[in-house]
Each structure stands twice: as structure tokens, then as C-alpha cells.
Amino acid sequence: MADIFQNQLIDILPKLRVQALALTRNRTRAEDLVQDAVCNALKARDSFIPGTNFAAWMHRILRNRFISDLRRHRATTDIDTLPGDLLATKPDHEDRLAIKDLAHGLAQLPSDQREALVLVVLQGMSYQELAEVSGCAVGTAKSRVFRARRQLQTWMMGELPEDDRLREEAAALRRRLERTGARKSEEVGKGV
């Protein structure tokens, strides 16, 4: 059993790294998270039931470790930063610009949507597996992926996020009101 467990653990490492990077958005912290999750799994290997979904078990351990680390280091953890080396190369053609925009869009997504999108789209996890890993209903898992896809599509097509769009509409309305107010005071001054 130990050999099977270790082989499954080695096979899942690349997928755990992708999930960890999606959660932390920092390669160094992602590697630390994977290492900690593997240590937790090795300590708890006797609790794993052979024949059950090992990948979901490992993804759940990694996610729980991430949440525990966030709670422990809430004041010092900055999850809104992109890995510096991810965008270090200056884009010199459209593909690199699109990747940069996609990375920026992913970074703007709420963490639950970003994680769901990465696990389903990049790792090929089913909605049922995502629900198990995330500890939510299958419908919630589907909704998270749908909302993440829709929001990324909106941003990639050049539309502003909802908050920015509302700010711009409010500013435009304010400018119109100011112009209208200025015209009325000119009319009053002319005796119209």
C-alpha cells in the first residue's frame, strides 16, 4: 500500500502545483504550500481509504492547508500580488499581451472562482470532484466556474469591470449636471 500511495502522491504533484499557484499567485509560496500539503498527507496516509478518489483527497488537503495558512498569517499574507516572474518578460507580440491580460484577469477574480476555474479548465477536474475538493454543492461549483469564465470573457473583450463602469457612468452624469448647472446660471445672468 505504501508504494501505491507514494506513486499516487508523485503523480499528483504537478496538479497540486497548479492549484497552489492559482491559490497563492506566488511561485515560492505555492511550492511551500505543496510541500506542506504533502507532509500533511504523509502524516495522514493511514486515514486514506484505498479505492477512493486520491486526487480529490490531496486537493482537499492542499486547499485546507492554504486556508489554515491564510488564517494564521492573515495580517502578513498578500494574496492579491501576481508572481513577479510571471510577467517579467516584456510582451513583444499579441500572444504575450493576451497572456498578460489573462493573468491580470485571473488575479482579479475572487479566489473561489479562480480556484474553480483552474481546477476544471486546466486540470480537467469534473464538477463533482471540484465540489468534493471545495466542500460545496455541485451547483455551486458549476456557478463558480461559469461566473469566472463570464467575467474573464468580459475583461478580455475590453469591457470594464462592473465597479469601474459604474464609476465612469457616475462621473459622466456629474459632468452633465455641472454643464447643465453652468448653462442655467448663464441664462439667469442674461435675464432669459
Automatic annotation (TrEMBL):
InterPro entries documented for this protein: RNA_pol_sigma-70-like, RNA_pol_sigma-70_dom, RNA_pol_sigma70_r2, RNA_pol_sigma70_r4_t2, RNA_pol_sigma_r2, RNA_pol_sigma_r3/r4-like, WH-like_DNA-bd_sf
Keyword list, A-Z: Sigma factor, Transcription, Transcription regulation
BP GO terms, sorted: DNA-templated transcription initiation
GO molecular function: DNA binding; sigma factor activity
Domain of life: Bacteria
Protein name: Sigma-70 family RNA polymerase sigma factor
UniProt record similarity statement: Belongs to the sigma-70 factor family. ECF subfamily.
RNA polymerase sigma-70 region domain residues: 14-75
The keyword Metal-binding is assigned to this record: no
Taxonomic source organism: Acetobacter estunensis
Keyword Transcription: yes
Start and end residues of each RNA polymerase sigma factor 70 region 4 type domain: 104-152
Pfam families found in the cross-reference section: Sigma70_r2 (PF04542), Sigma70_r4_2 (PF08281)
